[in-house]
Amino acid sequence: MDVRNWFLAVGMLAVMAVGESAAQEAAEAPVGGAQVQEYRLNPGDGIVVQVFEEPDLDAKVRLSENGRATLPLIGEISLNGMGVKAAAGVIEAAYRKGYLVKPAVTVTVTEKKRERFNLIGQVAKPNAYYFPESGTLTLLDAIGLAGGFTRMANQKVEVTRASGSKVKIDASNRTEALKFRLLPGDTVDCRERGF
């Protein structure tokens, strides 16, 4: 093989390697530049906690009603609302306080508690619905899950929180409906238009 062909072959291999790397990065990137939100731990979630090279400290637990986990040596620790990386950091810090020098902890969610919300009134399919795996849902998405409004619907809806507080939202205002996030236990009441 002459020198020219050798350089040509090496150059083609380099281009192929760079192209494959770029394709892999593009495949791993979120669609449309959207940020993928990390799942937040909730009461009732099942998790596995593993401590590197300390198998006696590994634990499979379910978070209590107040989002706490009971772990070997450190006892009860609050993980409610944390992402898995933050939870691992909190557990590592607890083990560093008098138990381990450099703990390396991983937290894996094995079971997500499925939270519900209700859609009642003038939607195509009034019912109780589960939140998606991401745990977040906008008012507009929720109405879409129920098949949209009926022809009789007043698009000014009332959301009753689990706490009993009420919020009125104009769902015909797309920006407002996309910003408003539902919470577990919410009831969305889509009332009939007045004549």
Which CATH C-level class of the largest domain is it? Alpha Beta
Task: Quote the distance from N terminus to C terminus.
Answer: 87 Å
Report helical residue fraction: 25-40%
| Inertia-based shape | flat
Number of helices: 4
At the third CATH level, what is the topology name of the largest domain? Outer membrane lipoprotein wza fold like
Strand content: 25-35%
Reading the helices and strands in chain order gives HEEEEHEEEHEEHE
Uncertain parts: 18-34
Rg over CA atoms: 25 Å
Q: Which architecture of the largest domain would the CATH scheme give at its second level?
A: Roll
DSSP, total strands: 10
Q: Can you summarize the main beta sheet?
A: 5 strands, mixed
List keywords for this structure.
2 domains; alpha+beta; single chain; five-stranded mixed β-sheet; 4 helices; 195 residues; 27% helix; 25% strand; three-stranded antiparallel β-sheet; Outer membrane lipoprotein wza fold like; wza like fold
What's this, in brief?
The chain has 195 residues and is an alpha+beta fold. It has helices at residues 3-28, 84-96, 139-145, 174-179; strands spanning 46-51, 59-62, 68-71, 75-78, 105-111, 116-121, 127-130, 156-160, 166-170, 187-190.
If you had to describe this structure to a student in words, what would you say it looks like?
This protein is α+β, with helices and mostly antiparallel strands and 195 residues long. The chain has helices at residues 3-28, 84-96, 139-145, 174-179; strands spanning 46-51, 59-62, 68-71, 75-78, 105-111, 116-121, 127-130, 156-160, 166-170, 187-190. The radius of gyration is 25 Å and the shape is flat. Mean pLDDT is 85; it is low at 18-34.
